[in-house]
Amino acid sequence: MKRVGFLTLLLLSCSAFVYGKIRLEVRVSAPLPLPESGLYLAASFNNWNPGDPVFKLSQQSPKLYYIELDQELLHFEYKITQGSWAYVEGDSTGTFMPSRKYDFSPQQQLVQIEVVGWEKRAFYQMVIKQIPTNTPHDATLYLVGNFNNWNPRDEAHRLYRQPNGTYRVNFSTELERIEFKFTRGTWASVEGQENGRMRPNRVLFRSQIKANQPLEFEIATWEDLSGSGNLLAFAWYDIIILFAALQGFLLVLAIPTIQDFNRKANRWLVFLLFFVSSILLIRTLGNQRDIAQIFPFLQFVPDFLLLAYPPAFYLYVRRLLFQSDQFSARVLLHFIPSSLQIFAYTPFFLAEVAALKVDVVSHDAQGWWAVNAVAVFGWFSNAFYTYLSLHAIQGYRKQSQRSYSFEENLHFLLTVLIIMGVCLLLWAFTLVVAGIGFLSNNEIWLFTEKSADLIWLIFSIIPHLLGYFAIHQPEIFKVAQPVSLFNTIPEIPIEEVKAGHLSEKKSEELSDENLQRLKQQLEAYMTQHKPFTNPKLTLNELASMLKMPPYLLSKVINEGYDVNFFDFINTYRIEEFKRRMEDPHFQHYTLLSIAFEVGFNSKTAFNRSFKKITNQSPSEFFQSVKA
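Now predict its structure.
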């Protein structure tokens, strides 16, 4: 019998060698933090998965565990865990212990080790108190974040349902900033916001979490179960932006059909409207869950508006006011930043859909730095070109006053700049708050998202505004002359107006005698014929009435009265206004009607000129007359 037992043991040993099994025995002398979890082997051959069920150790006795491994593993490193890195073996003081190593030896088929302690690592207990009512009853929930490479189905971070209906998971990480979400195993079934839109990452900061404090969360909805199949589940602000895009497309079709419109200037306007409307449409559709799941790259397309729109609008203003239509390399220089943006965003558009979904939440995509850079640089670009556009409008007004007695209708351009100014203020405030939140480790995604929605909503007013002007003031599309928004063509060359003086060949000096004679001639004509009552009076028209060259009339006004043509004519209009105020025949007229009678073309122009020339408002003057 003894001989038979010896032979049996010999055969078993030989079979173990033939089949190549390594037996790893683990004796646990330290108390288990989680007795019900068991022990796991996390090694270099299983990607250091701390809770791999394939490598869970079997329990032989209360303190002895074992696992059999293939002998093909010639060399590997390993550690013992309790299912996650929150509970990994350490030395007896709880300090970090280097990985264990195994090197193949035919004589060492039994490896015996002892766990004497567990690392004292920072770990977190995540508790989901409430899930959406439409969650499938057999759903399995997972925790995904920057601590597990954004794996949406990581068994080591699976949440387990508790008897009280909550879901719990414990995990450990040494990261100071923890970004995470909850999923049902795929990115299509990730948690979302109540309105169905993508939920920004949840954020925790290690320094702000109290030890052993359960972290409780509620899931509002799942992206794949929030209005599934409803492609028109738009929020109210999405509807407004969508209508703005449609308004822009209608104007793109309508503007070229208007006769006698300024083709060169409005060519820029049509391009600008089409570009802005397309971006607004893409942003609205890209925010919809069903479309974002199929085309996640659409979320990056609206960023191109930030760098391309400002120079395009500025070039439109220049073309409309100054006929600056010469296409040159200098025009292309304005679009260098937007060209670089295309290059920086290329990784997003070339990435696979599945990989891009991970990149969107992890912020680890190649070129992601460009998103933040565009947000900051875009503000400076918009501020710079808004200033240039405003400066161009002010310069044009100053130049036009040398030839015209009326103010141009620049309300559309000024209103657009006001809208841009409001957007810039909100944009700057958002960047400051976001920077403070990042530096102070505060989660502010809800504020930044709502602020971004508000900025886009305000910006979308521009197509609606343009539609209003197209109906009520269509003359802004009928600009046919170099430097005016109306149909009065100036006869003074634009080069002379831009330079601020007349050409040298017409700049001969006027003697005092000739100047006085011409002044008397001008004053007599103004008093007798009252040409200033024509609201569209120009320098060329008045010169024709006086049978005098326009350049000579300009010199008489500039040198004889030290004012420009605009102020010269408005001075006569104001004097005529005062005279009619005292005339009983005009007692039943309103102030504004009298202003129109004497040649002013708008209430704003009348009030501004009256204040400038008399140092008091029309109402103040009226009160003084009554007194």
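DSSP finds 20 helices and 18 strands in the chain.
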